[in-house]
Amino acid sequence: MMPSEDDKDVSNLSMAKEQETRAIKADIAKLEKSLEDERRRNEELLTNLRYLQADFENYRKRIDREIRDLEEFSTVGLVKKLIPVLDDLDLAVATATKAEDKGLVEGVKMVQKSLDTALESEGLQAIKAVGAPFDPSTHEAIESVPGKNNSQDMVIEEMRRGYTFKGKVLRPSAVKVETASRQSKSEEGQA
After folding, report:
1. Does 131 fall in a domain?
2. Which of 46, 103, 155, 160 meets the CB 3.0–4.6 Å disulfide criterion with 175?
3. How many CB atoms lie under 10 A from the CB of residue 24?
4. 190 in any annotated domain
5. What is the pTM for the complete model shown?
6. What is the percentage of the chain residues whose pLDDT exceeds 70?
7. Domain total for the chain?
8. Which range marks the domain in which residue 156 is found?
9. Among candidate residues 84, 61, 109, 104, the one with its CA nearest the CA of residue 163
10. How many helices (H) and strands (E) does the chain have?
11. In what order do the strands lie in the sheet with 163-165?
């Protein structure tokens, strides 16, 4: 039996639908592959963007730190230049006090206080010396005298004031030190 015209049409129609389905499936597979490629590309771009964002944040922090360091460095230079002025004012107050010129003493003390306040606001601090234990990182021993009952070396006189700037020593204090009484090892063992 020969297939009829209707059977041929159905068969052709079925083949056409099958070809169309294959073509659609092929198009879908291409689109899915293209979509997956775009997703991968987007992930790469997003990762690169995150790296760039992190690099930029690190760059911004580094620039901020460099600006702070530059500001501090320029301030340190000025403060170092003004320390001798503070020394001169200390000397002027001491000299004027000996001359008993109260007006001059008061005037120089006001200038000294004003300069001290301005420099302290920038981070300059005088090192506490007299009565403190000797510390070689902040004190420079100019003279020493033997102590009687000290258990440690003590600063008894300050010859030149020392300064720190934002926690760093700019100039150590020049001091006279009373040394700790040194007992011999045999005396320590007996005590």
Report:
1. yes
2. 155
3. 10
4. yes
5. 0.55
6. 90
7. 1
8. 125-191
9. 84
10. 3, 6
11. 124-126, 163-165, 168-171
